[in-house]
Each structure stands twice: as C-alpha cells, then as structure tokens.
Design brief:
Low-confidence stretches: none
Pfam families: GH94_b-supersand (PF06165), Glyco_hydro_94 (PF17167)
InterPro entries: 6-hairpin_glycosidase_sf (IPR008928), 6hp_glycosidase-like_sf (IPR012341), Gal_mutarotase_sf_dom (IPR011013), GH65_N (IPR037018), GH94_catalytic (IPR033432), GH94_Enzymes (IPR052047), Glyco_hydrolase_94_b-supersand (IPR010383)
Largest sheet: 11 strands, antiparallel
Protein name: Cellobiose phosphorylase
Strand order of the largest sheet: 1-2-9-10-11-12-23-18-15-14-20
Radius of gyration: 30 Å
Mean pLDDT: 95
CATH class of the largest domain: Mainly Beta
Helix content: 25-40%
Keywords: Glycosyltransferase, Transferase
CATH architecture of the largest domain: Distorted Sandwich
Organism: Blautia acetigignens
Shape: globular
Strand content: 15-25%
Structural class: alpha+beta
Bound molecules: 1-O-phosphono-alpha-D-glucopyranose
C-alpha cells in the first residue's frame, strides 16, 4: 500500500491515519521567531529559542504521551427533533466530547479498534491540514496549522462541519497550554517558575508574562509575553476563558478528559488576573447549532512577543477566515519559492522526495541542529562544520547572500588555525566558550575551503580570496593545548597586533593557515591528530594518541585543490605574489626529511604557535604564488603517498584504508588476513572497516582507481545492508572501545556506531561520482532514497533522515547535513551541472532508469542569478558513460560542446541572458 500520496510537484502529500505511526512530526516555522513541531495529533512544541518555549519542550519519547498540547474540543449535543426541541427551549442531550485532533480519552481508547476514526493529513512546506471524521458525532473537522512568515504567531484554523442529516449543537473549546519559560526549567524549578507567572485574560485570549526568568543566564527580569488568542471565523470573541491548568483539567483531571470540557464548567471573563499558576490558553466559544452540511470556523493564534501591547495589533490581521486563508497562501508560496530547485526524473515520487530534501537545508538554517523532537540536544545554533556545509546548498538556492556569509564566517578562525565553536545568532558573531573547555574538532578547518571552492567554481569571483577579515581570539591557544594567560575579556574577541590594533588577513590567508596548521599537527604515525574528534562527533575519546587518517586524506585533497585554485588565479588574473602574516612563513617549510618526521613537524607547529600565541607583529611577508603552489602540491603528494603506503589494508580482492588510530596508538581497521607477524585480529572480532576513511581517500584523490574498485568491493561485502538502507558507517566492532569514542557505547547499528548514516553515505556517493564511478555512486544514493520512500520501513514523512536504524526506520528527520550533500550531488554530479570559474559546465551522469519514458530528465535551478530549465535527452537510454553529447542548446543557440560528454555555457553568455525568463537548455545525447 502506498502511504505517502503526492498531490502535485511541490512536495504536497497526504497520508491516512498518520497517528498510527510513531515519531512523525512536521516543522512549522517563520523566517525568524517561532520554531514549532507538530504531530498528527497536534502534539509537538513551539519556541523562539532555548529560553523561550511557548509550549512545553518535547523530545521524541514524549510524543506518544504528549497530551498537554494543542487541542480543540467540541461538546456535542444531538438535537433529535431539530424544529421543535430547540425552539421549545429544551436542552438537547449531550452526546459526548470530541477532540478534532483525536486527543481525548475516548478516541485514545478506540484507536486500533473498528471504531477508530478516519483521519487524513495533508502537508507541505511549513503547513499541515488534519481532517478527521466522526460518524458517532456526525462531525468532520479540518485543522490547518502554520506559522506566519515573520514567525510572530502559530495559527490553527479549525473548521467543523455537520456531516449528519440532523442539526448538531456544539460548544467549541480551543486549548493551547502555555509553558512560557526556558527549556532548562523542565525539571529544574518547574514548580517555582510557575509561581512567576502573571496571567491575564483579555477580550480575545490569554496572556502570560512571567515576572522573572530563571535559567542558565541567572535570574533576569522577563520581558516576554506568551499569548493564545482566538476568534470565530467572522472575528467574534471567545465567550470566556480557562487560563490555568487546574481550572481547565480540574482536580484529578487530565488533558485527555478535562473537567472544563466534561462538565461544561463556566469559563472566566475577560479582565481576569491570576498569579503563580501553570497556564493554559483555554478559549471557550459560544454554543453553535450546525445544520446538516453547515460548517463553522475557529481561529487560534499563539505566540510570544517582547511588547505585550502589540498583541492586539499583531492578531488583528488574522481574525477572520478570509485573513487566515490569505496568510496560508502567502506562507505556502513563500516556502515553495525558496526551494528554487526541481528535478524531473522518470519517477515523480522521487522528484517530490528530492523537493523535500532541497527544503531541508533551509530548515537547518532556521532550526540549527536543535529544536525538533529528535534533536533535543544543543541550545540552538549550528556547529561550525554544519554552518559551512549548509552554505553548499544555500549557494545554489540563495546565492546572493552567501558571499558575505562566507567572508563573515571566516572571522571565526583563530590564528592557530582552529576556530570558535559557539556561533552567535547573528552572522559573523562568534562566542568564546563560556566554560573554557578546550575542544578542537580536527575536521573543522577542512570545510571552509570546500564551500569556498564551490563558490569560486560557481562564480569565478576570485576577489573573495582577497577580502580582509579579522581572526577570532579567546583564552584558548596553540590548537587547544594551551591558554593565552595574557588574554582577558577586555582584549576582546578579535586577534590584535603588538600595536593593539585588530589584525586583518585575507580570506586566502585564513584558508592557508587552516590547512597548513593541520599539516603539521600530527601524531606518532605521521597522520593528523584526532584531537577532540573529527566529522564523527562520537570519536571523542582519543585525545592523546588518536589520529584521523580519514581527514588527513581530506586535508591532502584541500592542499592540492588550493594550489589548483591559486594556479587558476595566476592564469586568469596574472597575480603572482601574495601577502601573509610574517609569522606564517615557517609553515611553508618543506623537504622529505621534515615530512617523514612527526617530531620535526610538531616543532614547526610549535614555532608558529609560539610566535602567534598572543599578538601578531602586524608585519607581512610576500611570497611567490608559484612557490606557494609547489609547496602545497608537494605536501599533498607526500601525504597521499604516505597513506597509500602505510594505511592500505588488503583483503583478497577487496581492500580499504585504515581511517584511524586509537588512543593506544593502534590501527583501528583490519581485514581477515593475518598481519606480517601472523596475528589475525579479525579472528575474534571480525573484519573492521569504516566508511569515513574511504570517502575522503576517494574524494581527495588519494585512492587510485584500482583501490577505489577494491574499496567498493569491500564496502559491498562488509558495510552494505539493503535492509538497513544501504552502506553502514562501520562494521560491528563488538567492543566498547573506550580508547576511541563514545560511539562504541551506542548500540550497534544506531547513529554513529554503524548505522546507515545518510551524511557519510551521500558523501561516499559524491566521491564515487566525482572519480567517475557513477554506477556505484548511484547505488548509494538510490538505496538511501528507496529506504526513505518505503514508508512501511522508514515510517517517516518525505525527506532524508540523519540515519536509518537496523530495521530501516528513518530517525532524526529534517536537520541533517546529508540533505545539502544529496542536493549538491544530484545537481553537480548526477545532472552534472557545475560551475567552472563562473561558466556553466554540463556533463550528465544519469543512469538510464533516471530518464522518463521518452528518455528525458530535467533540472530547474538558478545559476549566476539567471533561471534555467535544463533538459537532458537520452532517447535510447544509453549507459551514462556511453552516451555522447550530440547537440546542446541554450534558448535555441548552440552551446560549446567540449569533449564528447561535456557542454559549456560561457559566463559572458550567461551575463547576456534576461533576468526573469526561464532559459531552456537542451542537451541531446547520442
Ligand atoms: C551530525 C552532525 C554533524 C556530525 C555528524 C556525525 O550529522 O550535525 O556535525 O558531523 O552528525 O557525528 P548530520 O545530522 O548533519 O548528518
């Protein structure tokens, strides 16, 4: 049975009885302001940040008992003789109390029985509409939920229709419990903080303004007001209010069977003030008789504001059905427009899943890595590596903002090549770690250049490399190994020179510094030290002796690519010298003897970090670009060769690279083949293979073509598990391995310990495509998507999850870096649309099955500010590497076809194209 049924090409889908599946939720948010999550029963929560939760914070395990949440009740009366009974003043008989979202004791009890009501959820980007039908009560309800674009309010529009052939009388009661404080208070002073509440009812709703806030920031005067307002579809006020939990649920009551609803308790009037109670926005509307087929609509608005006098104005624009409908249309349109990438392959369901995947990076820009039920860690914001990787997708969807974002983000780099890890709420704002905990993630310096390289490819804008920005400065120094005792907060968070001036360096200087410092920061096997962890956050217990070969490969690739970019810079712009901080000169030391000696490398690193431990001199040194390039290339070549020589593991016709050393300085991975001493480590624990090391060995060019093929065989044999969704992150080590990381404490097959972890799997695909192994890459991408799309197993709404568990369930929906990489890989590798110094180059690597029946596949996207619809025609459905380009056109004009498989649209031509028009590119393969 098909569970997710798409309604259009914009990701809108319906699903029947979604409440029968666990862990489902949708994000609802504005561009700023409220960030909500909503389940099929209207559970979930809503907040603006860690310290301002409108609804009580929920984690995934709360969702199945999350009842103190949004609800809308109808006390339903049956009018048996409609003509006479009412007019004769006879009180109709109470039939029962119905929750339009299935959140009542009765509905809960009837769930999974033949009495279970039919419900249908329709959803799109940042909205959902839940329909529920009750034969017993003769009612049908639709609840539409969304957050306004500005993020000021969450809106629920409830429409109740009489589907019986008799009159039905209802008393509608909308209720949104107001938590109104910091997530910290969930179990830290939960009761005490309710004593701070000042609650009042106004004509249209309930307002809660705590006097103080108690959280990690201390005790502060609170300025935030939380509100729940409401009206009928015509803007009529509620009749009365239930402003406190005890008032609403009653003694011994619950939110599933609240006294106010059960006993028809009269509500409080407007103007009531109450102190020191748990609050509820309970809104009771006047009794209403619905004729057969007649409908009545009600609006609930909830939000937070710093200016309580603005609530009336804020809510006045959303008091009637017409206003709500208009707002909903705006919301839908806004988010659809944001996702300005669309794919058309042979399968429209795939295309719709891809739409959601493209939406995910936007969600992570808004939610960071916190604030959805699975993502109950962190206090908001994004990590450094996430920030940079999300820029990859934003470069494609929101390119105009990204240039400045890139430049500003480099301001987080420290002069020792590490970076600030707490990222402030505004762009370019970095915060010193409050606890002065030394944390260095050794992969962090790798990502900025990856993003900058994509930017350079897309735009050809070399000038960005010469933008000047400062360096971040705090107490930490020497790559997390020391503290700068001379630094204090009055110095400020920007690196200074001896003249007490803020030091500015170019973006290029930042890039070189990050990658060169990494080169020298090695462990005893001459691979880069793992420090706190690398991309895999959970490899965090090998601070002393751990090494990451995986990221040594990655940095080697960067050094090579930086040299490549600099050579292009010289070729295109004739620049042949660059200026750097004089302290950095020692980082260009070279020579085999140095390369081979971890000790000498560490000495050079020490020399540099000593020189830059507090202030810089402010003096610059000028270096020849040619020399810099040769230096980088030599270092990269040495790194790669060293890894090929020392880290390769042969396993019959399979092979892979050892990706790590543990805190005992031992190689982490091994094959079934005994080592030279005849020891067979595998005999006890089985083969040990990890995906991360392979991904970066391939991506960087460290792995030879032969090795890539053997890696693929190894991955297929030891990591691939179709049932779990594809390639696992590692084999089962069957060991707790406290000398490597907490990941080994996780159950095998979960999260970083051997789950099918989408992010690394997609990067594996990307690396395979990049090196000409498109068929293998396709298998990786397709297995992931097939698993996500198989709702019976994945049990998730459309999109790609962070990982699939052993049963193939998709976990940690929406907020994953995998989405950016998936989208990027689809565009730049599968459709093969890449920037090359600002030109658009198209070299498709689509599989025959990715074309529609006519042999056509299409991609809509923006490039250089112009809109394109790119169609690839492969009528004979030839294999990707057998099809050659016969003709290529843009708006009917021939494109430059370079080799047999690549077409090029020059930047100069793109610049001449009209702005608003969609330009058609047709690539005809033969
Ligand atoms: C998450 C984190 C990312 C980290 C990864 C592996 O990945 O966001 O920073 O590198 O786990 O530990 P994501 O959910 O983005 O796929």
């Amino acid at each position: 049975m098909k569970h997710i049924e798409f309604q259009d090409k914009k990701g809108t889908f319906i699903i029947h009885n979604p409440e029968n599946y666990s862990g489902l939720y949708l994000p609802l948010a504005g561009e700023k302001g409220l960030k909500s999550s909503i389940t099929p029963n209207l559970g979930g929560d809503s907040k603006t940040d860690q310290n301002h939760f409108l609804l009580e914070p929920v984690s995934i395990e709360n969702l199945h008992n999350n009842r103190n949440t949004r609800n809308f009740w109808c006390r339903v009366y049956k009018v048996s003789d409609e003509k006479n009974e009412l007019s004769r003043g006879i009180n109709p008989q109470l039939l029962g109390c119905w929750s339009v979202c299935g959140n009542s004791a009765e509905q809960e009890f009837e769930k999974f029985t033949e009495k279970q009501e039919e419900s249908v959820l329709e959803a799109g980007f940042m909205w959902q509409k839940l329909s529920r039908r009750s034969e017993k009560y003769g009612l049908q309800a639709e609840v539409t939920s969304f957050v306004t674009i500005s993020g000021d309010m969450e809106v629920e529009y409830v429409e109740i229709t009489n589907i019986s052939d008799k009159d039905v009388e209802v008393v509608p009661i909308g209720v949104i419990p107001v938590y109104g404080r910091s997530a910290d208070n969930l179990r830290d002073h939960r009761h005490v903080t309710s004593l701070l509440h000042r609650i009042q009812t106004t004509e249209y709703g309930v307002e809660v303004k705590p006097v103080l806030s108690f959280d990690e920031r201390g005790h502060q005067k609170n300025n935030t007001t939380y509100f729940v307002y409401g009206s009928s579809e015509n803007g009529e006020k509620p009749e009365s209010f239930y402003p406190t939990v005890e008032d609403f649920i009653g003694e011994g009551g619950t939110f599933l069977n609240p006294e106010a609803v059960r006993t028809n308790k009269p509500g409080k009037t407007a103007g009531t003030k109450i102190q020191g109670k748990e609050a509820v926005g309970g809104l009771r509307f006047s009794r209403k008789t619905l004729k057969p087929k007649e409908a009545a609509g009600y609006i609930l608005l909830s939000g937070t504001t710093k200016t309580s006098d603005s609530i009336a104005l804020l809510t006045s624009g959303c008091k009637t059905k017409l206003q709500v409908q208009k707002m909903l249309e705006e919301v839908k349109e806004h988010w659809i427009q944001k996702v300005n990438v669309a794919f058309e392959t042979g399968n429209s369901d795939v295309d719709n899943y891809l739409k959601w995947i493209c939406f995910q990076p936007i969600l992570r820009r808004i939610y960071g890595c916190s604030f959805l039920p699975y993502h109950d860690y962190g206090k908001g914001g994004r990590g450094w590596r996430d920030l940079w990787q999300d820029c990859l997708a934003l470069l494609i969807m929101e390119p105009s903002d990204v240039r400045q974002m890139i430049v500003d983000n480099y301001g987080g780099v420290r002069i020792d090549g590490t970076n600030a890890t707490i990222i402030g709420s505004s762009q370019g704002e970095f915060i010193a770690d409050r606890n002065n905990i030394t944390r260095v993630w050794m992969d962090h310096s790798f990502w900025p250049f990856v993003t900058t390289k994509l930017y350079l490819d897309q735009t050809g804008d070399f000038d960005i490399l010469f933008e000047k920005i400062p360096y971040f400065k705090d107490f930490q120094s020497k790559r997390g190994t020391d503290h700068d005792q001379e630094w204090n907060s009055s110095y400020g968070n920007w690196q200074k020179t001896d003249n007490a001036e803020v030091y500015y360096g170019t973006v290029l200087e930042h890039i070189l510094l990050q990658n060169l410092c990494a080169f020298f920061d090695v462990g005893e096997h001459n691979e880069m030290r793992l420090h706190g962890a690398d991309w895999n956050d959970a490899m965090d217990m090998a601070w002393e002796k751990g090494e990451s070969v995986a990221f040594t490969c990655a940095y080697a690739g960067n050094l090579k690519e930086i040299a490549h970019v600099l050579r292009e810079l010289e070729r295109v712009q004739g620049i042949n010298k660059i200026e750097l901080a004089e302290e950095m000169e020692c980082l260009f030391a070279y020579g085999k003897q140095l390369y081979e000696s971890p000790k000498e490398k560490l000495q050079i690193l020490k020399q540099y970090t000593d020189l830059s431990a507090h202030n810089l001199s402010g003096n610059k040194v000028v270096l020849s670009l040619e020399k810099v390039c040769r230096n980088l290339e030599e270092k990269a070549d040495w790194l790669m060769e060293n890894i090929r020589k020392n880290e390769w593991i042969q396993d019959g016709d399979k092979g892979w690279f050892n990706g790590y050393y543990d805190n005992h300085g031992r190689k982490v991975e091994y094959s079934a083949v005994p080592d030279e001493a005849g020891n067979n480590a595998c005999a006890k624990n089985g083969v040990r293979m990890m995906l991360t090391g392979q991904v970066f060995a391939i991506m960087s060019g460290t792995a030879t073509d032969q090795q890539i093929q053997e890696i693929c065989k190894g991955a297929d044999a030891y990591l691939y598990d179709r049932n779990a969704g594809g390639y696992r992150l590692n084999t089962d080590f069957k060991e707790e391995k406290f000398d490597l990381g907490r990941m080994f404490g996780f159950a095998y097959g979960e999260k970083e310990n051997g789950a099918v972890f989408s992010h690394m799997a997609v990067m594996y695909a990307n690396a395979l495509y990049k090196t000409g192994h498109a068929r293998e890459g396709y298998k990786v991408l397709q297995t992931l998507l097939d698993t996500a799309m198989d709702f019976d197993r994945s049990k998730m709404y459309p999109g790609i999850p962070e990982y699939f568990d052993n049963q193939g369930r998709g976990l940690y929906a929406y907020l994953t870096g995998a989405a950016s990489w998936y989208m990027l890989t689809m565009i730049t590798e599968v459709f093969g649309v890449k920037g090359q110094l600002g030109d658009m180059v198209i070299a498709p690597a689509l599989m025959p099955e990715q074309y529609d029946q006519e042999g056509k596949a299409s991609l809509e996207m923006e490039f250089a500010g112009k809109k394109f619809a790119i169609h690839i025609f492969n009528k004979e459905k030839k294999e990707w590497n057998e099809a050659q380009i016969r003709e290529a056109f843009c708006d009917g004009i021939t494109l430059l076809a370079e080799t047999g498989r690549k077409a090029r649209l020059m930047r100069s031509e793109i610049e001449k194209l009209e702005l608003e028009k969609v330009h058609e590119i047709n690539i005809i393969l033969k």
